[in-house]
Amino acid sequence: MADPVNAADLVQGIIKGQVPHQVRLFAAQGLLPVAREDLLGLQTLLSADPDEELAQVAADSLKEVDQGIILNWLRESPPEALILDLLIRVRDGEEIWAAVAGHSNVSDETLRVLARAAAPVVQDIIITNQVRLIACLEILDDLRANPQATQVILRRVREFEEEFIEKALAEEAELAEAERRSIEEALEALRMIGAKIPNEDSMPYPGADDLALTDAIDRMDRGTFGRLLDMNVKEKVLCALKGSREERAILVNSRNRLVLRGVLSSPKLSETEVERFAASRSVSEEVIRIIAANNRWLRLYPVILALALNPKTPVQTSLRLLYRLSVRDATRVSRDRNVNPVVRRKAVEFLARRR
Predict the structure, then answer these.
(1) How do the domains of the chain map onto residue ranges?
(2) Which pLDDT score, from 0 to 100, does residue 20 have?
(3) What are the angstrom distances between the C-alpha of 238 and each of 162, 231, 252, 302, 320?
(4) CA distance 309 to 333
(5) Measured between alpha carbons, how far is 40 from 65 in angstroms, rounded to an integer?
(6) Measured in whole angstroms, how far is the alpha carbon of residue 104 from the centre of its chain?
(7) Residue 1 exposed, middle or buried by CB count within 10 Å (0-12, 13-18, 19+)
(8) What's the confidence (pLDDT) of residue 274?
(9) Which pLDDT belongs to residue 316?
(10) In sequence order, which residues have a C-beta less than 8 Å from that of residue 92 and are 6 or more positions away?
(11) How many CB atoms lie within 10 A of CB 126?
(12) CA nearest 54: which of 14, 5, 88, 82?
């Protein structure tokens, strides 16, 4: 097989392991007679070479390249997503990471790495790109997990989550309204003036249920849990907002805060479900916190009692709710060993005063 004769062939040959060691070494050292932008791409790719010594040569050589040259390369000769991902693992300069974060070719996976590891300047670039965030909501969790995340970034993450939920609910409402404005409205208007719809009994509009699809899913032994596992975060959020009671019962155990917000923002959520979530010991503290912050739900006595008895409820919240309990239920709190000792002691004091 003939040796590759240009940079494009070299890249493909390196990926396929078809380039001789000496050629790879020259490329790693920056000594091949190819254009600078092609050489930078080759060095970046070779920083992941199976030959560890050669990979180290490529990485060391790339680290010596002036930052301005790399920034010009990123602007003028857009590298592919793989090259961008490898570059941030070799060059950790803030300006380079910022350029990669704002690059049109950057992959979602690379953005997630940067979101978890980058400084606030880069985080700001990521949180500002709402198109990419909507396409990969997992990035929000990554930003939240970054130990360098500032309060400003965390606030913007929360604001984006709230805005996303609001938009999803608005879109759902618009779809529902569009469905209601179907031909059925026109037919109903005719009925109101005494019109008779021809053959209405023998030719009804078909239902929306896709029984064949349901049967196929059952035959594949893929229940609700299996389908949810295959969803990305965006799909889970939309399912949490629009899905069934069973789907919400599963999704409320998610570790993703946006999914949890979706469950608790669902227009289909019933008071019984809220009560069950408030009493659950398996849900996250975020679920308890959201429920306890909702004044509408705190008008429901079963929810108040469930929160007061749940050891995951923040102590200050439990103490505030304690004084809204009946004597019988306050006695339950005072005797429940799972409840925080501070709350139990206050319950005893509360009962003593009531008596």
Answers:
(1) 1-106
(2) 83
(3) 13, 10, 13, 28, 34
(4) 6
(5) 9
(6) 21
(7) exposed
(8) 95
(9) 93
(10) none
(11) 24
(12) 14
Rounded Cα distance between 317 and 65, Å, is: 56
Confidence of residue 2 (pLDDT cuts 50, 70, 90): very low
**For tokens 């306890």, what's the residue?**
292
CA atoms within 13 A on the CB side of 164: 28
What rounded mean pLDDT belongs to the chain? 85
**Could you tell me which residue, 96 or 51, shows the higher pLDDT?**
96
- Nearest one of 40, 73, 70 to 58, comparing CA atoms: 40
pLDDT at 9: 76
Residue 340 CA to residue 322 CA, distance in Å, equals 12
pLDDT at res. 1: 39
Unique residue bearing structure tokens 């003593």: 352
Residues 37 and 73: beta-carbon distance below 8 Å: yes
Question: Burial level of 144, CB count in 10 A (0-12/13-18/19+)?
Answer: middle
pLDDT digits (tens, 9 = 90+) for 163-193: 988 888 887 666 555 555 566 667 777 777 7
Provide CB contacts within 8 A for 308, sequence distance 6+. 318, 321, 322, 325, 329, 333, 339, 343
Q: Check pLDDT > 80 for residue 63.
A: yes
Is the pLDDT at 50 greater than 90? The verdict is no
Residue 124's pLDDT is: 96
73, 82 Cβ separation under 8 angstroms = no
Supply 91's token pair.
């060059």
Position 295, amino acid: N
Q: Which residues contact 273 (CB under 8 A, 6 or more apart)?
A: 245, 248, 249
Question: Nearest Cα to 45, choosing from 26, 58, 61?
Answer: 58
222 — pLDDT class (breaks 50, 70, 90) = low
Backbone angles phi, psi at 172, to 5 degrees: -65, -40
